[in-house]
Each structure stands twice: as structure tokens, then as C-alpha cells.
Amino acid sequence: MKKIKSITIFGTRPEAIKMAPLIKEFEKIENIENKVCVTAQHRQMLDQVLELFKIHPDFDLNIMKSKQTLTGITTRVLQGLENIFEEEKPDLVIVHGDTTTTFAGALAAFYKKITVGHVEAGLRTYDKYFPFPEEMNRKLTGAIADLHFAPTSGSKNNLLREGVLENKIFVTGNTVIDAMNFTVENGYVFNNSELNQIDYNNKKVIMVTAHRRENWGKGIQNICNALKKIARDNEEVEVIYLVHLNPIVKDMVYKILGEVPRIHLLPPLDTKETHNLMNKCYMVMTDSGGLQEEAPHLGKPVLVLRNVTERPEAVEAGTVKLVGTDESNIVKLANELILNSNEYNIMSRAINPYGDGKASRRITAAILQYFHIQNNEYKEFQ
């Protein structure tokens, strides 16, 4: 029996969440012998996901260092993977999305002339510094990749415009929707006791994350000032801000919001807690990419605290609005959702364009088809 020898590579929590269901799908397929390599670009938050999904890496580069730089991450990943690829000689290397691990993993595979599969391929803002460094990471990975697993037809069209051959692109939906089938539970009780004390039925709970590099400084300051005004003007609102551990973000958030009534400042939650908080909340405000896909799956409107997004499908579908980091605009659009039930219902009932929970199956079928193990199994996500 012909077997494909593959290595899946990831290093951050968002990558792990989205790769986990694919790894679990590979475990069911006797024609795929998959090994897992983590770079641990983010150590603690990555380990939480590995534990949740019961994934035991075959290789752990453990590269994370205090005050690490993009250059340091890239070189340590390249050096670590060189020996692994030399010893394992895989047929296929699979990377995800747009992290520095993603680009360095694809580049290391290219240097060894190994086929590269790119999950969540084709997302674009067409501004190389927004988001930074993710936009260039995914474009450079796309230039290397042989198999492009695009989550949507819009992502596929981006790749076609860049000259990628259509028979190398597979529209699959996003694997994060697959992951949420594992994590979201009705009647969920949080491990964090403060979250269990909030009245999700009678309060309008806003879940917030904001930490992106391009928002450091003035952007985070404006977001915090807006949240303060929203909370003070709306007694029915409770804000839960999951504050990134980076002191550049954390210090400013606590300085502005530390004493504001009905604003709860909590450290980042693990994946299961985050997904279930999202399921219980009223709406989401974020500069994250992944939450733009996850929250609409649960019927939660999303205000994106960025000026551009590589996920325009959700904006077009009406589940997401781009609000930027202007304080008055954030307040205005948040109040529309808090006070106007019609506006809220339009966003909360819009169809999520990112998947049906079967993306991992489609990716697996596409790989088997590409390596001539089985035909006619892959069917494009509509």
C-alpha cells in the first residue's frame, strides 16, 4: 500500500487550533503517515492547544526566547528543520497561514525540494505592512507552495490573479470551524471563576482582544478610551478584555481601563475557554484574524479594530464590520449594535462564509488525489 509521508509544522496557538482537526483527520487515513513538528514560536499558549486536542509532537524545536526578533525566529526554524527534513525525507510538508514559522517552514522545505501544502492560502490585504509581518509571510509562502488549500473562493481568486495554476488550488473552507466542533459546549462552566459570575443572559457582554503590532501605541490607546466610554454610557454592558501578555499592550490597557466599572481585564484564555466565552457573549471587538472567522460561526457580530482585513468575505456577508482604531468611530458602531436590535439581528443572522466543519476532510481528499492514491473524492467547498 502506497503511503504519503508528511510533516505538519506550526508554532503558535492560532496555527495549532487550525491544524489540530487536520492532524486528527490524518490519523484516520492509513495512506498518510503524518508526523507533527512544533517550533514553539509561542510556547505557553501553544502547549494549551496541544493538551486540549491530545496532540503529542514528534519534534519540538522549542525556539522561543525572551524578546525574540523576527530574524531570530526565522533562522532558528530554518536551522532546526534542516536536520529533521534530512533525516525524515517527507513527501509533503504542510504549513498553516501567515506566521514566521509558516514562512520559514515553507522555505526550509523548498531548500530540500519537498512538496509544500499551504493551509489557509490566498488571504491578502495587498499592503505589505498591514498586517505585519503576516501579509508578506503568506505571500512568500504562497510563492513556494505546491498545494494551496484556500478557505474561500475569494482566496482562490487572489491566487489565480497571482498566476497560481487552478489545478493546484483547492477551496476547502476554514479548518477553524472544524476545530469549534471539538471545543464549544452548551452549558459550559468556565475554569476562570470571574467569568462564571457574569450574567450572560441579561447583560450585553462584549468580548475584546486587541494586541496587533500595528495597533501598538496610539491604536491601543484609542481602543481603550472607546471601551471606557462604551462601558460608562451603557449600564447593560459588561466588557471582557482578554489582555495580551506583551507589556507594550498590557501596561497601557491596565493604565486606562484598570479601574473602570464593568470592564474585566483578564489574561488570555485557553482555546476552549475562549470559544465558549465567544459563544456566551453578545458581540466581539477584535483586531485578531481568527476571531473574524470563529465568532460568525456562533452568530456573534464582530467589529474589527483594524483598517484593513485579509478576510473580506465576512464583511461582504455582513457578519463583520471594519471600524479601525478611531475612538469616535468605535464608540458609534458599538453603540449601534448595543442599542439597535435590528442592526444586531442583521449581523448575527448573516451566514458565515468560512466553512461547514468539513475542511479537514477536503484537504485530506485533495492530498490523496494529488498523490494519485484516490480520485474523485475532493469536492470544492461552496
UniProtKB/TrEMBL annotation:
Q: Does the keyword Isomerase apply?
A: yes
Q: Which SUPFAM superfamilies match?
A: UDP-Glycosyltransferase/glycogen phosphorylase (SSF53756)
CDD domains in the cross-refs: GTB_UDP-GlcNAc_2-Epimerase (cd03786)
Domain UDP-N-acetylglucosamine 2-epimerase, by residue range, is 25-367
Origin: domain of life:
Bacteria
| Any one Pfam family match given in the protein's UniProt record, by short name | Epimerase_2
Gene Ontology MF terms:
UDP-N-acetylglucosamine 2-epimerase activity
Which protein are we looking at?
UDP-N-acetylglucosamine 2-epimerase (non-hydrolyzing)
To which species is this protein native?
Answer: Clostridium moutaii
